TrEMBL record:
Keywords: Membrane, Transmembrane, Transmembrane helix. It is a multi-pass membrane protein. GO terms for molecular function: transmembrane transporter activity. Its main location: membrane. The chain crosses the membrane at residues 12-32, 52-71, 83-102, 108-129, 141-163, 169-194, 206-227, 239-257, 277-300, 312-331, 343-362, 382-406, 418-438, 497-517. It is found in: Membrane. Residues 12-525 form the Major facilitator superfamily (MFS) profile domain. This is Multidrug ABC transporter permease.
Amino acid sequence: MPLEPKKKLRQSLLILLQGILSIEFLLGTYSPPAYATFNLYPSGDLGVSPSHASWISTIYFAGQAFGLFLGPWFDRFLGRVRALFLAISFFALFDFLVAVSSDYYLSLFFRLLLGIAGGSTMTLCQLNLLDYYPINRWPFITAYFGFLQVSVFGFGPVLGGFINEYFGWRAYFLTSFSLHVICGLIASWIILFLSDQHPEHETKDVYFDWVGFILILFAALCFQTIVTRGQDEDWYNSTFIDLLFIFGSVSLVYFIVWEIGEKKPFINIKLFLKPTFIISAIIAPVTFAIVYGLFSTLVFNLQLLKNATNFSSFQAGLAMAPLLFFLPFLYPSSVFLSQRIDPRLIASILLTLLGIFCYWTGYYDFFRKRAFFDQFFNQYILLTQVLNGAYVGLVAPLNAIAIHGLSKKNQESAINSVILLRTYFLTWGGGLLGTMVMEHRRDFQQTRLVETFSGQNPESMQFISSLHQLGLNDLQIHSKLVEQAANHSVILALNDTYRLCSWIYFFLALLVWLPSLKKAERYFS
């Protein structure tokens, strides 16, 4: 019967299997934001400067983006069940290797492979679970996994911060490794021995565009390294950065030329000729890059200012928790409404809410120097994170815009391409906002503070006098003033970064209206 599932399990076992595969999916999703809350600790433990901290975190996204793309190919080439267990095994292996690694660059390489294994596992978990449900239930299963994925910035940072705070950063990866082993054994027990049908390891000789894959992966890693390491290497005054840019650009151009001539390309370049697709392919990556960039920048600086703010890695992770307020109803509502009303309207409203969130957060009165009205509202900074939860509803309307007017075959290709771009550009968020914007604004604010906060300033004289009364000598007072200026400049730069992102969101809220949607083709099944 067409509505019968391919495989059958008792209801209790199906619930258990869904729970196990959900844990595996979440382990792949939560790894980067969880790591971001404590990335200063491994950078110090591995003997590198704090500026290297975000590289290990963001390189996971590069691997994950391509792993999500490779998952369906592994499914057809190796067989669905075999591919799942191999992906989980490699996921566990690389988690363990990251946990025990004592070399930074080796750990970086393992994180890239961990991302590829994690992305593949996430895709294969969904495909395997779909086999146990009839086709008419597939949209609900897909929405369920989408719901898990958009919870990433709510639960991931809290979990990572808690484990690091009480057990150490290596314990996070060892915990993940242990869960992979346990979940893999339980899933294999259910699928291989308790299923009503013995799993078929059906394989297909499927063509894969290896040349296109290698070219775009190489280009992606080159540009990701440029964004992450550019500030430390002094950008284009560095031969290393220049060579990366040249090799990455040549690889990208050759990839485009190669894909145009391919019958079964890795990415369908012709999709970029569709206005609706290209707008979605711009807005989705930029939006999610900013969401992760602001998150990683906020968490990094809260830890950097630990002496001034008293924020631990766990407390820094809790700063993102309020955005979960929107999760239970906004994501399913956006999935439902995007098929029935103009998705541009939904996307525009959500982007506007994100702009309001950034603008409000950018005027947070950390120093309590404004009027009572501002102080009353700004003291509840965590409440602005509720508005940040608007991002959870953006996936559905932007996907609806991307596939507008496309055939069923091209719709799948368009969705996969947007997922790859959206996931990959998360690697750019922390680098661009944390270095090109945040550090430049910090240097500007620090210079301005030094120029205005002089020794003849009444506030300066009062502050210096209070330090004298505490028994500090002139050298200690000078050191304290430098520390205050440095901390103050970081906070002001963080506010500047949020305000800049607010205007980007407002611009995107208008840009989404640029492509026209024909009314007859507006709604999608």
